[in-house]
Write a structure and sequence with these properties.
By secondary structure, the chain is an alpha+beta fold. Helix content is 16%, strand content 44%. The protein has an 18-stranded mixed β-sheet that branches. It is globular, with a radius of gyration of 18 Å. The relative contact order is 0.18.
């Protein structure tokens, strides 16, 4: 079977995207096929695969799979990339509303390669001795470091992800360094089971944890109708730069937007033996 696909990347977080509106190519049960497509040596190679599908009441549905072939929790950079894909297909204009595993999302196409994605509200954050744990659509463990570049992200991230607390359901692990007016973030992702060049839900978690940490480096106040009284924090991941905008309301974070580039890399067709 030949499957037409598109390759997208958002700050180095890369995805295979399939237009599955007719339901003719892949299903949620095709774990082995999806894992094979995501394999970087024997397939196309990607951090994950997404199906763009029809969903009544929404512009489309986003179905996201990790590189292991199994459906995952929300992927922020994937969400931005599938919005860029929908715009490329002509399904949406400058804005849209789609459904993902964690619920509805609004998004804006600011330019052909700049996408702003509204994330879920965050109402609970666990503060530990040297970490924050929160869910931004996916679970994230956030810890701060004076020098992220010096860390062995895979080894240290894996030790936390497979610790007694997290080994059953897993967690993503983020290492964060304050650097002037921005944050430097490195992420170990569950499902990929490796460091990725960027993680959208991860940098979102890092920005919120940074705000709670109350360090000297603070986000720039966002002015305008969309995020009144909010903050904007610049993020530098290994794959590029992002921005996280949010508002603080009592004990909750609301109006959270993940903003950054989303680029089509190439188109192709892969033949899969069924």
């Amino acid at each position: 079977m030949g499957i037409p696909f598109y390759k997208y990347q958002g700050t180095g977080n890369d995805f295979v995207v399939v237009d599955n509106r007719e339901g003719t190519f892949l299903t949620r049960d095709d774990h082995d096929i999806i894992e094979k497509i995501c394999d970087r040596r024997f397939g196309v190679g990607a951090d994950g695969l997404m199906l763009l599908q029809n969903k009544e009441g929404y512009d489309f549905e986003m179905v996201y799979f990790n590189a292991d072939g199994y459906e995952g929790s929300m992927c922020g950079n994937g969400g931005r990339c599938i919005v860029a894909f929908a715009h490329f297909l002509g399904i949406i204009g400058a804005s849209c509303r789609f459904i993902a595993v964690d619920g509805p999302h609004d998004a804006r196409v600011i330019a052909s390669r700049w996408i702003e994605l509204k994330m879920v509200d965050v109402t609970q954050v666990e503060k530990g001795a040297d970490f924050y744990f929160l869910d931004t659509g996916s679970p994230h463990y956030v810890t701060f470091s004076s020098d992220v570049a010096a860390l062995d992200v895979v080894t240290e991230g894996k030790s936390i992800r497979y610790s007694n607390r997290f080994k059953e359901e897993g967690t993503n692990v983020n290492f964060v360094q304050t650097n002037g007016n921005e944050l430097i973030v490195a992420t170990y992702e569950r499902g990929v089971e490796d460091e990725t060049l960027s993680c959208g839900t991860g940098v979102t978690a890092a920005a919120l944890a940074h705000y709670l940490r109350g360090e000297e480096v603070k986000g720039e106040e966002v002015r305008g109708e969309e995020v009144k009284g909010g903050h904007e924090i610049g993020i530098r991941a290994k794959g590029g730069e992002l921005k996280v905008k949010f508002a603080r309301n009592n004990n909750s974070f609301e109006d959270i937007w993940l903003c950054g580039p989303a680029t089509q890399v190439f188109q192709g067709e892969i033949t899969i033996d069924i």
